[in-house]
Write a structure and sequence with these properties.
83 residues, mainly alpha
Length: 83
């Protein structure tokens, strides 16, 4: 859980940085500055994509809880067919 929380915080920081770069990009008149800001945003996007893929790959806690409850309920009480 701690790693997921850190990942989400890092993503939030990256998104805020992209937002600041975007604001600066709107007003940048210098070609070098526009290129620098665009490159910074691309780097942030790549890092965000990597973090999203990391989050997507980790098992979800709700899946584990659902499987555990199914195993627990089926093992605890046998089911009988009513006729």
């Amino acid at each position: 859980m701690k790693n997921r929380r850190n990942t989400l915080l890092w993503m939030k920081d990256l998104i805020e940085h992209m937002s600041r770069c975007h604001d600066q990009l709107q007003w940048a008149s210098d070609g070098e500055m526009r290129q620098y800001l665009a490159e910074a945003m691309l780097g942030d996007l790549q890092e965000c994509q990597r973090l999203c893929e990391e989050l997507r790959a980790e098992p979800r806690e709700s899946d584990h809880a659902a499987r555990a409850s199914r195993r627990g309920s089926s093992a605890a009480a046998p089911r009988f067919a009513m006729s």
